[in-house]
Amino acid sequence: MVRIRVLVVDDHRIFAESLAAALAAEPDVDVSAAGSGPAALRCLERAAGEGRRFDVLLVDSDLGGQVPGTRPAVPVPVQESGEDGLVDGISLVAGVRAAQPAVRIVVLAEKDDPRRAALALQAGASGWVAKDCSLSRLLTVIRGVLRDETHLPPALLTGVLRELTAARRHRTESERLVESLTPREREVLRCMVAGLGRKAVAERLFLSPHTVRTHMQNVLGKLGVHSTLAAVALARRAGVGPAELTGDVVERGGQLA
């Protein structure tokens, strides 16, 4: 029998323990649980190092910090989160998909939220399921995503498609605006994305601060925004990455103008 290795990631300990116990009763499922994003990442790394990678992650859409509690009474290991910061659900999806693309991820949600569901799919999730769904439904989704299926509640389909279409439209418009920049202005924009101020940009590109100021004003005008932060946000939507920085440049000019 091929066994499915599942990791439940939820900071509500009672829910995580109950779900893990229910899944552990299935003859073809091995399950563990983690109480936070950092704990989940450590668990994934440890399993990969031991050659026992997880197949499916079930991630709380509202994942935050671990709620203090006692050790679980169910026969599955629950990892402790420690005090090394928080990782929200959508960020965890993106991070896991980048590090271990073979892992399939299903987001567990308290309520239907088309925007959050669209963000989860964009981050790499394969499904969005209500936390109060039946165990049989959840098992169907788990087995389905392992066949590369995508699972969404029917009531969410229209809203999610609308959100994905809007995101694509915003990206296309942002890309068009960035393409209107000259090569030098795109260089300046990449420096802005990297967080460099005017003086640091001038030193990096061997330009005078006055010239850099002119380029920055031109960038803002062509992008149709009124601040550096807005320009950076638009650039990121268009897929513009930051300029590569040396430690010296970062120390001298790490503040936005």
From TrEMBL:
Superkingdom of origin: Bacteria
Every HTH luxR-type domain range: 174-239
In-chain residues carrying the UniProt-annotated modification 4-aspartylphosphate: D60
Domain Response regulatory: 5-146
Keyword Transcription: yes
Family annotation (PANTHER family): DNA-BINDING TRANSCRIPTIONAL ACTIVATOR DEVR_DOSR (PTHR44688)
Annotated protein name in UniProt: Transcriptional regulator
Native source species: Streptomyces incarnatus
